Amino acid sequence: MRFVSLIAAAALLPAAAPDFALAQPAPPAAPDVIGSAQGDVSVTIYQNGQALVQDVRQLDLAGGRTRQEFPDVSAQIRAETVSLAGPGIGIVEQNFDYDLLSPDKLMEKAVGSVVTIVRTNPATGAETREQAKVLAANGGIVLQIGNRIEVLRDDGLPVRVVFDKVPENLRARPTLSVTLQVERAGRVPASLSYLTPGLGWTSDYVMLFDEAKSAIDMQGWVTLTNNTGTSYRNADVLLIAANPGATGRGGSPFSRFGGVGDTTIEQAGTETGTRERLGDYYLYPLSERTTIANAQQKQVSFLDVKGAPARKAYEWNNMWLGTDSDFRSASTVLKFSTSKQGGLGDQLPSGTIRVYMRDVRGDPQFIGESRVDAAPMGSRMSIRTGDAFDVKGTSTVVKRERINNRRWRTEMRYDFSNARPEAVTVDVGQDGLWGDVRIVSATLEGERVSADRMEWKVPVAANGKASFSVVFDTRY
User: Fold this and answer.
1) At a CB cut-off of 8 Å and minimum separation 6, what does 404 contact?
2) How far is CA 103 from its chain centroid?
3) Which of 65, 99, 239, 394 would be 324's cystine partner, CB 3.0–4.6 Å?
4) Residue range 50-74: average pLDDT?
């Protein structure tokens, strides 16, 4: 059955389904129903979707043991993390009421109780009222009216259900109820703090690359997301670039145009940033207080750099003994630095960089996006934006033979083509070179960059081709 919103009993609004209402006289609304019962709110948000909420409220308390309610807390509050501090008060017991007032919940809580059914004759407008006992509210409303059993149907006739009161354990807003032991009566500032999921932030970057000037403009945005069921009004917000308690890494991204590609920190930075730190975490406080409404995304700028040096490169990687039947594209890569001198001058929280270039008309066009891990200041960055249309390569195992019981000799050839009107350099990487690997001969000098990888810089002329060969001596 479909239920319509809760309305006052005096409002005679026809509806296509039963309406639920409270009987007259309605209790006076609490002063905080329209506004918020929150006090001075501070919110610390982590990147793992968890937040610390600290709410200082002014309480008028009676002495001795008393019960105090805290509405407008998170609907996802972790009750075991609640802390309440104030002069002369101590917590005896606490309860979190998370059953929120709704037509369905109101009917569920009314099972076994008596309600009033108000029916309106659509022809005459005359009302009839009957007392009914709610027998069931699972999948439909079953009523006992006098000696008959009736199912409240959604049949298009105007019907309202009137309740005498709201059940005590049903709340209009998420509410924390606390039993306190108070030393003396009076007005007391109390600091309520708790952890809650559902409130997180991510960082996103917009990069405009100027190939002619070999420069980038970078804009960094923080996106706040609130799914806690509660709004935080005029809050002092602090963002922490960290995932407390998290271990490991997420899934492996892949390099494809239009998808989230791979980002490499070619060299981790060693420069100390100017931002505030908490242990090993960087802090990003918002400059002004802000309201984070429930079910809302809010974006705030935290980085704005113009004209930082950057260059475009092409990368082509091959696994050990990899052979291509067809030419495959090199990856288009943008290289830049987060260094204070000649770079962005800041550390980068993990996020997604979306890259744009201007076309011949001067309009920025999207060319790809890539994931960036948290990068210290001074890092050398290499982000892959997609596959190059005009720069392609292939690898071939020309010859492979066993030279003794423990060694193999393998000749590899790498061929590249360039359909662009200018010369390019392709950074070629050969992976899988574990253990004792020797280079017997090579037509192009390369560099061993890690335990299992060698790289070559291959110049390819405009509208031209280039090749080089390497003979490896390996144990496999």
Assistant:
1) none
2) 32
3) 394
4) 91
Residues 6+ apart with CB under 8 A from 252: none
Is residue 216 within 8 A of residue 345, CB to CB? The reply is no
Tokens 């008028």, residue? 60
Q: Are 313 and 425 in contact (CB under 8 A)?
A: yes
- In this prediction, residues 156-168 reach a mean pLDDT of 74
Judge contact between 334 and 209, C-beta under 8 A: yes
Query: Cβ atoms within 10 A of the Cβ of 378, count?
Result: 20
Residue pair 225/199 in contact (Cβ under 8 Å)? The answer is yes
Q: Which of 163-172, 252-261, 357-366, 436-445 has the lowest mean pLDDT?
A: 252-261
Which of 191, 213, 203 is closest to 243 using CA atoms? 203
The amino acid that residue 96 corresponds to is: F
The reported pTM is 0.67
Residue-wise DSSP of 285-320: E-SS-EEE-TTEEEEEEEEEEEEEEEEEEEEEEE-T
Give, as one character, the DSSP assignment of residue 347: -
H helical segments located in 257-405: none
Going by the DSSP 8-state scheme, the letter that residue 121 receives in this structure is -
Nearest to 313 by CA among 393, 244, 391: 391
C-alpha to C-alpha distances, 56 to 38, 174, 284, 367, 383, nearest whole angstrom: 8, 17, 22, 48, 45
Between the alpha carbon of residue 38 and those of residues 55, 78, 185, 388, the distances in Å are 7, 18, 21, 54
CA max distance for the chain:
104
Enter the tokens of residue 473: 């001596």
Among all chains, which residue has been given the structure tokens 């990003």?
284
266, 382 in Cβ contact below 8 A?
Answer: yes
pLDDT one-digit tens code per residue, 364-412? 999 998 888 889 999 999 998 889 999 999 999 999 999 998 899 999 9
**Is the Cα dihedral 67, 72, 73, 76 positive or negative?**
positive
Continuous segment of H or E residues that includes residue 424: strand 424-431
In angstroms, the CA 422 to CA 349 distance is 36
- Sign of the CA dihedral with 45 first, then 51, 52, and 54 last: positive
